[in-house]
Amino acid sequence: MLGKIKKETAERWGYMGFKSLFSSGIYFNVFAFLGLVTIAGLAVGLHGTYTGYHNVYGVTRQIPWGVLISGYIFCVVTSTGLCLVSSIGHVFGYEPYMPIAKRAVFLSIAFMLGGFIIIFFDIENPHRMAIYNLLSPNFTSNMWWMGTLYGLYLLALIVEYFFLLDQNHSMSRLAGLFGVLFGVAAHSNLGAVFGMLHGREFWYGPYMPIYFIVSAMMSGGAAIIFFSCLAWKIDRTVLTRRMERAIMAVCQLTILLIAIILFFTFWKIISGIVSPEKYIAIQAFLTGPYAPNFWIAELGFGLVIPFILLIRSKGINTNLMFIATGFMLVGIFFMRYDLVLAGQIVPVFHALHVEEYSSLLLYTPSLHEISVVTAGILIAIVLYLGGEKVLNAHKFQKHAIVPPGAFICQGCGGIHYMKEGESQDDALKRHHRMRKVDREDEHA
Amino acid sequence: MKLTNIDLEKLIPENLTSVTKMERRAFLKIGLVITGVFAGGRILSVTSNVSEAFASGKDFVEQYPYKPHYSMVIRQGLCIDCERCLKACKETNSVPDYGYRTRILTKIVTDAVGRKREFIPILCNHCNDAPCTRACPTRATYKNKENGIVMMQSKKCIGCKMCILACPYEARYFNAERHAIDKCNFCWDTRLSKGEKLTACSYVCPTGARIFGDMSDPDNVAYKMVHQVEKQVWVLRPESGTKPNVFYMKATRSSPWDLRKQDGAR
């Protein structure tokens, strides 16, 4: 790739070489197939760029943001959530979350790249963005802040990932802290892009930035569990005792966040019903043309069914967690789609009671838009599949994470310290407060 | 009984001729507050908080010191949907068929007494507190500091369509020929900067439904229109907080003769 990597560096990084992709025939076939579908999607997108977006996209003057923007939001929200959830471990020091760090940050970068590719095909003049975002910034524009901060966020993530690979945990913690700060700032600005539009009553208010951050953490938790369970299906040695403990901890957090998002959604609907401006949009989602989107995809698959399944899995049943978080990721995509559309389907002049604006506006994604969104999401998945093989499933090397005088407990997966002259068994029993009587029985 | 000698010829009549211009303006300022005339972006009613609102035209001018302060007054009842304004706008400003800079909306009230249909022209309101200029990431759209027109600098537009989303009046659209967002600019580059006094749409309007003028000049017809104490003036979507510069009125037959049709219009 970039010349030959030295043997010590390769071992430290867990770099297995690109030939590891070919180790399993089925794996390479899946990888190559998805890669080809991605390239096909990008080709369709480029065709759209060539013919002009107004000819091939389903967006209109009245609904300027469609499935491309919701695809971008989905990728970027998942990326920020992955960064935030993994930062609980290796940035803020909560030990159970530490094993997920490498995979989570890698996926965060992958989804960010996918999101950028999707938005590249939505913005009409992306080449001007690079120039005028720098030369002519507008500090009152949420979109400017979001774009700039996400650029810095991606930079911080890449630096953090490099240090994680290099097993330099103090530097990765610092880079991770910047990633979290830029990520939270950028993400709440993304929420404010919607929330600070006084003319769009459905979105206006402080709710959007808050909802986006909490929803991001939920998506991140779901993504970590989904992709870790998928990694376990690929390579059974991924789920060590430490990893199982980490997945259980993330599962608990995800269940809590689903409950919070259910609470948010409930009150958004109830409080909206009494507002004449929001009422029409909310009715469109409860009983109108978007009702299947809302009840089945967003609530059913996105929140309620995963909530039940994750609780039933107890954080241990990998297959159940895999299905639940798979449903969640699909449901969350529809949550973004519904959110982006909800603020646009009610015509701005509906209160004038004119003939032209007497009904809800309609939007259908076109083939080009769906292709680009598919390509963007698949890029993240292709990178993920590549990383699982090439980077040795993001496993941490034992000697890098276990300090001298400590060991990884076979019981709970945590790192315990041994006292002077103590054996690992004794230290385990001491940590888990097994009674002295039982300890003596063990010796006997 | 002694009759007081009242010489009627010598008495000063208490009509408009005896009131000085300044006094008249002071009276009208109160009128601005009380009768619901729109000033500086708020509908004011008798119960409104007077200290919050623009109590005087002078305050309005101080906050928005554009010279000329271009505005449009649309008299809804006079519009007959002849669409000459749409045609003139398209031809003057090269507006493509898939887009529009101005539009006529149709309102049908089936249980109205008498006339059942009304036509409402809409266009960019050139808001004093424009959400589009706040939201544009590259300042491609901006409010001109001299005349208050919200203009486009096409070369900076990245086509993110944030401004289309931000605009509460659906005034903007993406113009594929210019590769940028396009919207009404009061015919600045095609007419006003070349010495014309009126926009294309107000020039061709046969009924005087569109009155284009300068709010900073008290002798201008647009200023006079919105400062009539008996007439109700409103703006579209005041709750969005944009402080628009396009005012709407109902037309009545009691308009003063010099306000029936705009000077210079066809």
- Give the low-pLDDT segments of chain A: none
- Fraction in beta strands of chain A: under 5%
CATH class of chain B equals: Alpha Beta
> What would you call the structural class of chain B?
alpha+beta
CATH class of the largest domain in chain A: Mainly Alpha
Radius of gyration of chain B: 21 Å
Low-confidence segments of chain B? 26-55
What does this structure look like?
The complex is a heterodimer of chains A (444) and B (266). Chain A is mainly α. Chain A has two domains: 7-401, Up-down Bundle (Formate dehydrogenase/DMSO reductase fold); 406-443, no CATH class. Chain A is 69% helix and 1% strand. Chain A is built from 17 helices and two strands. Chain A has a two-stranded antiparallel ribbon. In chain A, helix 4 (67-90) packs antiparallel against helix 8 (169-195), helix 4 (67-90) crosses helix 9 (207-234) and helix 9 (207-234) packs antiparallel against helix 13 (318-342). The longest helix of chain A has 33 residues, at 241-273. Chain A starts with 6 loop residues before the first helix and ends with a helix. The relative contact order of chain A is 0.14. The model of chain A has no long low-confidence stretch (mean pLDDT 92). Chain B is α+β, with helices and mostly antiparallel strands. Chain B has a single domain (64-259), classed as 2-Layer Sandwich (Alpha-Beta Plaits). Helix content of chain B is 20%, strand content 16%. Chain B is built from seven helices and ten strands. A four-stranded mixed β-sheet of chain B has the order 8-1-10-9. In chain B, strand 4 (141-143) and strand 5 (150-152) form a beta hairpin. Chain B is globular and about 85 Å long. Mean pLDDT of chain B is 81; it is low at 26-55. The A-B interface holds A 52, 54, 59, 61-62, 64-65, 122-126, 128-129, 132-133, 136-138, 140-144, 147, 193, 196-200, 343-344, 347-349, 351-357 and B 98-99, 105-108, 120, 122, 131, 134-140, 155-162, 164-170, 172-174, 176, 179-180, 236-237, 240-242.
